[in-house]
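Researcher: Structure for this, please.
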Amino acid sequence: MRFIFLLPLVAACLMPLHADETALSTGNKSFIVVGDFTHIRLRGHAKIEGAPDDGSYKEEVNGASIVAKVIGLPAGTYTAVIDFAETDKLFKAPGRRLMKITSGDTVLADNLDLFAVAGFEKAYQLKATITHQDDTILGPLVITFTGVQGTAKFNAIHILDAQGTCVASVKAGDLVEVDDAFALKIPQVSGPVIYTDPDQPMDARIDDLIERMSLSEKVKQLMNAAPAIHRLNVPEYDYANECLHGVALNGKATVFPQAIGMAATWDEEKMRQVGEAISLEARAKYNEAQREGMHASGQGLNFWSPNINIFRDPRWGRGQETYGEDPFLTGRMGVNFIEGIQGNDPHYLVAMACAKHFAVHSGPEMGRGHFNVDPDSRDLYETYLPQFQAAVEEAHVGGVMTSYNSIYHVPNAANPWLLTDLLRNSWGFAGYIVSDNVAVAHLYLEEHYAKTDVEACAYAIKAGLNLEDGNVFRALTKSVRQGLVSEKEIDAALHHVLAIRFRLGLFDPPERVPWSNTPMTEVESPEHLELARTMARESIVLLKNDHVLPLDKAKLQHLVVMGVNAQVPLLGNYNGTPGKPITILDGIKTEVGDAVKVDYFEGAPLTSDPKMPQNDVSPEDSKTALEAAKTADVIIYVGGLNSTELESESSGYESPGFSHGDRTAIELPAVQEKLLQDLQATDKPVVFVNCSGSAMAMPWEAAQIPAIIQAWYPGGQGGAAVADVLFGNYNPAGRLPVTFYEKTSDLPDFSDYRMANRTYRYFSGKALFPFGFGLSYTTFAYQPIVPQTSTVTAKDTLHLTVPVKNTGDRDGDEVVQVYVHHKNSSVPQPIRSLVAFKRVMVPKGESVKVDFDIPVERFHYWSVEKKAYVVESGADEIQVGASSGDIRQTSTVTVQ
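Model: Predicted structure, token format:
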């Protein structure tokens, strides 16, 4: 690549530089940068320690060989000041990146190791003296960067004369590709400026702003790290942000249970409240960032959450980010979360949600950059798409993120059927479509769908992609010049992208936007922390209880708590940082106080692999733990997995049972099972608290351990919530959003995307714990279903009532689940499908009537012949129960 920086020779080093706006008019070529390198905008530049606030560290050039030439300098002695920062995790160790920097025969640095001299994400300046002859003698002053180990890079170069005055300066962010200088032309627009007028229609305002931009400016606004356009008063903005279960990757925040745990609550209203709390914390953080002049990744108001992919296989490491295996439950939880995030103000959004990853994506992680899926059309429309359609049509989600994979051999980031025909034209989506990180680069580097970055950009834009999480879209100016895409198509994409910021009120006076003064006291407010504890309580699933739980503190003198997971915060991935996280050990100790002796031992590592972090449990510790367990009244073992190595997004961890964030076996690791067997052999009551983001196969534990609870990754308040359940302060009512299988061999091949023999809807075997399962400290009796009618049409709403009585001695929540079973269908159908549910509190000894209004269209299937959803005439069985495996009452409804 060849870039040129155009600047008058004596420009001040630290003044704002706007080469993209002035290059054509100055015509003074003081800096030329050429070589085999790429131009990268850094997402985390605001976090670089010691970086000056002059834009030097916002972007970098990076490559095998980079040559910077300064043209027109008079003879003399100069000081070159070069800015660097090591920001790539691949080079987060000494000796991984070594650079040689020379100027003619003078070596400015030999084997420069940025990590060794500065550390990671810390600013470093190299200062070196250069003696320069007149250009006519030896040519321009040249500084050459060569990668000795890894690649070379720099962020900015400043040239100072003998008096210390800056006479020339170049920053990576100010480089302009020579061949695309035509894109710098600023249009001359007549007529009034309306994009700054909040009383004008939003679409007209957006179009007015776009009309005033150069092509270069437009293209830069189509990447996540959008730079400021100073002449138009458009501030810098980074679209990259996450809020999966709390504001993520941006410091302190309320951390709710991981998404899979929140799905286990089956509580739509609480899910909406979580979204509302997150959006207020996001506004508070955004307001604070604006006051500090910060515009980095993670500080904006649009979020790339929720993840509403179907958790079709428990081996997928990112399944923890989802709402489980069922499209209806996923859709209901997703819709409420989105509506909570975006709010219901008629003019502005509190924050903006984005449904991902569109579509048909659920691992394996290692192949996600290039694998293709040819889904059966019924699987596609009945499992992989419904929750996205609900997010668009019902919740009016602001954004949709494409997945890396291909469908029918067309990559999703460049798939016109998926992005335009289906999403926009069929469902009426009006928001922005963003690529997953580097998905556009994958079009030519991984999937070979395009030959070059120029082609890849054109394919993506023409298919309907609007925003890139990455920087390949820099090549869009070439795409226009070569006639592969039109500027009008770029304008259309940019309209959707800028609408995000207009709908958030970011171009309007603060006094008009209701949340402009939202204070930082919203972050981890007492109300939000209490909601996090409530959600964690509601998420906990009691899997087994042979008269052990709840624990009676009055009868306890000595507790032994074991397990690595007991002493660490269990937050899940894509998380914020809780101010005072409560571990499970903390929660137990706080609950029992000084009245009960609590001994803690690690007992056993999570896996037997010594390379695994936190796996340094000594044999002596294990032996001591077992001896102590023999003297305890109750043993509590906190085990399972973790969300960083064992199940995660593309982890580098690889060992038996685990592969790069995914699992190759779903069984509880053998080292943990051996410890549980030893603990059970003490004849003391054992409580197993399993912490994981996915289903675990544990048939021995289900048969032998007297009490088991599934705690997921319960978040910042999780330890208190687990203690609440253990000691009976809260009656558990979480229900499984996924099937717990008995063994790995029950599962089809991981890479097979057919739904046959997957999830409760199609699995023909016997589940260890079925979808929807969960016990309580009380019991519930279901009375016969009371339908208002036994005959309906496809356009009707079925009204039914289910009386439920609490037959135990504790108040408790029950999750009443309604399934449909097609009795005499002309086509193969699922075993049963969830069509409604309600979480209700039933006081002890009392009955409640649980009412449902169920649109009959939920009984539909996808007709391959008609290419449409069809509600089939005939008899359907309505099944009501406590889980998919515990149907208590049935009723037959005839569809006419």
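Researcher: Any notable elements?
Model: The chain is about 25% helix and 25% strand. The two ends are 66 Å apart (CA to CA).
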